[in-house]
Design brief:
heterodimer; A: 469 residues; alpha+beta; eight-stranded mixed sheet; three-stranded antiparallel sheet; 17 strands; 39% helix; B: mainly alpha; 3 helices
Chain lengths: 469, 60
């Protein structure tokens, strides 16, 4: 039975938002064995302990997040609902550690079937054959009738934000190689759509709020690159949130609608000098730095009004501005300890100088994979971070805690508590984003439609009932 | 892979020379070099084969 007495939706401050991040990891078995072994087999061995724990390779964890194997054998981690960017980044980083912790067990099981090798997990967006996989951002927004017009207002921002938030990559072409802002840009095929794998849009418009559908919709942004540096994640999600806050307050956006978004996103990605222009619907042309500056100026003009100036907002605006300045002035040292593309470019460039090689040299491609390897042992990014060459904004203790503990201020708290209690009681249960269910003879379900609600008497009762079957 | 246009691939063409590096930048370069010294041997082993062997179907 479904528990009655659904509490009314909470009144929520417009500045409060539910965030989520979904990351598909690249899975790579480095082995000298001659026996063919598919990514699906590797993923199966990697997830053996997950299945042992949750009786499925698609589970919700005690920290409220979801872990599963997605299309193409990509391990995917979707963070629990966070209502602060710091909680979100801690959860995202916790996810890297959670998947990395599966590696030793996966390698051991492979060894048991005669395959010696090393499993690498990459937090990146392309494999060596050019297949792409994503990093999806979720922003809960208030429902409105004109969602498509509302969402399309975000596109000029999304097309050009890569000069700040891009992961950076070496792009190989028949004419030679060059460094680009975003590996994901070349894999985008339209502005908005409800499809994901057939035709990759920048915004997925599938109406799936995982919340009270009368009140909310999910802005599902799938154009972003996966991020390694914590400040890059902050500015990526933080700047998008600030723009959404203005849009939700019905502030008129700058008239920057683009004539050809797919051409624009590619032109911006492949021009590290920042001189490429994008064509506007009204026939004008602007550089990406000008488009981004217009959004920064718009946000600044509403500080103290729609947007309260907090230390976090100031740090987002500061890094956003420095990212734009770095591209405009070509002084990348303004951001080369904070923004992924600049951190990566610096080390790629240094290694290229040492090797005196061309940019398409495989040793540099090897370096790129190492950069995105989430292993503390093999991962180059974490070596850079340990050396103090990348700025931190979340401390290790908070990330460590986020591996096992859900945020206390959202629905994730209820889910996390239920999962922990059900596992401890050895009871059968199923969970998704909006349901908690005890299965068995007397099955009981609680529907959680309000992602802002972190306390619920129905869940307390459900948890109490676990001890007395 | 064609072998022409070697110089066009170099970063030196893409990026103007930076201003004289301050002391902090020099320390960063030293730390970067020390790190590259450490991992260089590992990265060079079968780099091409390693990279090529990472092929997976696309995701979303």
């Amino acid at each position: 039975m479904i528990s009655p007495d659904v509490p009314p939706p909470l009144e929520v401050d417009p500045a409060r938002r539910i965030f989520g991040l979904e990351t598909e990891f690249g899975l790579h078995l480095d082995t000298s064995t001659t026996r063919p072994i598919t990514p699906e087999e590797v993923a199966g061995h990697l997830f053996h302990s997950v299945v042992q724990w949750g009786r499925s390779s698609n589970v919700f964890l005690p920290n409220g997040s979801r872990l599963y194997i997605d299309v193409g054998a990509h391990p995917e981690y979707a963070t629990a609902e966070a209502d602060s960017l710091m909680d979100l980044i801690a959860l995202d980083k916790a996810g890297e550690r959670i998947v990395q912790d599966l590696v030793a067990g996966g390698e051991e099981r492979l060894r048991a079937v005669g395959v010696e090798g090393t499993i690498h997990l990459y937090k990146n967006n392309t494999d060596s054959a050019g297949n792409s996989y994503g990093c999806h951002e979720n922003y809960l927004v208030r429902r409105r009738a004109d969602f498509k017009a509302f969402a399309s207002d975000l596109l000029p921002f999304l097309v050009t934000r890569q000069i700040v938030t891009g992961a950076g990559c070496i792009t190989r072409t028949p004419q030679g190689a060059h460094f680009s802002f975003s590996p994901r840009a070349d894999h985008m095929w339209e502005g908005m759509s409800s499809a994901t794998t057939r035709s990759r849009p920048m915004i997925n418009t599938r109406d799936e709020p995982h919340a009270n559908a009368e009140l909310y919709r999910r802005m599902h942004v799938i154009v972003g690159d996966s991020t390694m540096a914590e400040p890059t994640a902050l500015v990526k999600m933080g700047s998008t949130d600030l723009i959404l806050r203005l849009m939700e307050a019905r502030v008129v956006m700058p008239g920057l609608a683009l004539a050809r978004e797919m051409q624009a996103i590619r032109d911006v990605a492949h021009d590290l000098k920042g001189e490429a222009t994008v064509e506007l619907a009204d026939g004008g042309r602007l550089m990406a730095v000008e488009v981004q500056q217009a959004y920064i100026d718009l946000v600044r003009s509403h500080l103290g009004g729609i947007i309260t100036l907090t230390a976090e907002v100031e740090s987002i605006l500061d890094l956003w501005q420095r990212g734009v300045d770095a591209v405009r002035t070509q002084n990348f040292s303004l951001v080369d300890t904070e923004l992924d593309w600049a951190i990566k470019l610096k080390i790629v460039r240094r290694y290229q100088e040492r090797l005196s090689c061309r940019l398409d040299d495989p040793r540099l491609a090897r370096l790129e994979l190492a950069f995105h390897d989430v292993s503390p042992e093999h991962g180059l990014f974490y070596r850079l971070q340990d050396q103090g060459l990348v700025r931190r904004i979340v401390d290790d203790a908070r990330i460590e805690k986020a591996m096992t503990t859900a945020p206390t201020s959202t629905r994730a708290h209820l889910r996390g508590a239920f999962v922990q209690a059900a596992v401890a009681a050895g009871r059968d249960y199923t969970v998704d984003w909006v349901h908690l269910k005890v299965t068995g003879e007397e099955s009981r379900t609680v529907l959680l439609k309000d992602p802002f609600r972190s306390a619920d008497a129905r869940v307390d009762e459900l948890i109490d009932s676990l001890a007395t079957p | 892979m064609p072998q022409q246009s070697v110089n066009q691939d170099s970063f030196d063409d893409d990026v103007p020379d930076d201003a004289p590096a301050p002391a902090a930048a020099a320390a960063t370069t030293d730390a970067l070099d020390a790190l590259l010294d450490e991992i260089d041997g590992n990265l060079q082993v079968n780099a091409e084969q390693f990279v090529r062997s990472f092929v997976q179907k696309g995701g979303q």
